[in-house]
Design goal:
Elements: H1 2-18, E1 25-27, E2 38-44, E3 50-56, H2 60-71, H3 77-87, E4 92-99, H4 103-116, H5 138-148, H6 155-166, E5 169-173, E6 179-183, H7 186-192, H8 197-205, E7 213-216
Parallel strand pairs: 1-4
Antiparallel strand pairs: 2-3, 2-4, 5-6, 5-7
Length: 239
């Protein structure tokens, strides 16, 4: 009887070991997990080819976690690729390419150069915030128009939108926390730094960086510095 139990437990262990391992999202260099304001690439352990180029203002450890979470609830090419690879036991690896630079410019440059070299990137646009590249068909535009037609915003919703767009914001250096400027709205702040104002709003919601700056609806003597600044190497900084 005891021999049968030992044999049964041994068989169960063999089944568990042979069961497929589910992949994870991880960093190529864990010691760089705290870096922010970076352009990065994503690859998987199946063929180690870069399939996606992105940029982030938050820490890299948070960004790879967001990619994995988005793959479970969103249905675009990049999310389907991440979910499919992880489901088959392959890891998704985030590779920091450049940090502490103009992420908008360098993201577009890397996407353009890699596509010229034949990389099958899954980026839906040419990079940057709101730049062209993701062209919608007339059928898609019509479906969106039909879906949104007749939907009226409540008075409370309209009032909140007005307050948010006209609320005064204050800009600080993300490196020193020093107060730099004040603006009458997020739109005005976005124009001054050549960035989409929605990115400024989202950075304030998550209390994070927005490029080289941090923003607040409140006037502070100084803004706490969250992450140490990392400058790119001289070789990477060459344009």
């Amino acid at each position: 009887m005891e021999l049968d139990n030992q044999q049964r437990s041994s068989e169960q262990e063999n089944v568990q070991r042979s069961s497929p391992r589910r992949g994870v999202g991880r960093l190529e260099k864990p010691e760089m997990a705290g870096l922010c304001n970076c352009v990065y690439g994503l690859k998987d352990t199946r063929d180690n080819k870069i399939r996606y180029i992105g940029k982030t203002d938050c820490a890299l450890r948070k960004r790879i976690r967001e990619h994995v979470q988005d793959s479970r609830r969103m249905n675009n090419k990049n999310c389907r690729w991440i979910f499919g690879r992880i489901d088959r036991g392959y890891d998704i690896i985030l590779i920091p390419i450049m940090c502490g630079i103009d992420t908008l410019k360098w993201e577009k440059r890397f996407i353009r150069n890699l596509r010229r070299r034949g990389f099958q990137l899954l980026n839906m646009t040419d990079g940057g915030d709101g730049v062209p590249g993701n062209k919608q068909s007339d059928e898609t535009k019509l479906k969106k128009s039909i879906a949104l037609s007749g939907k009226k915003k409540s008075a409370v919703h309209i009032q909140k939108m007005r307050e948010a767009s006209s609320k005064e914001v204050f800009m600080y250096s993300r490196f020193t926390g020093e107060f730099l400027d004040r603006f009458s709205s997020t739109k005005e702040a976005g124009k001054s730094i050549n960035m989409d104002y929605t990115g400024i709003s989202s950075s304030m919601k998550r209390k994070g960086n927005c490029g080289d700056y941090r923003f607040s609806y409140e006037k502070l003597d100084s803004m706490p510095v969250k992450v140490k600044h990392f400058s790119p190497t001289s070789e990477n900084a060459k344009s």
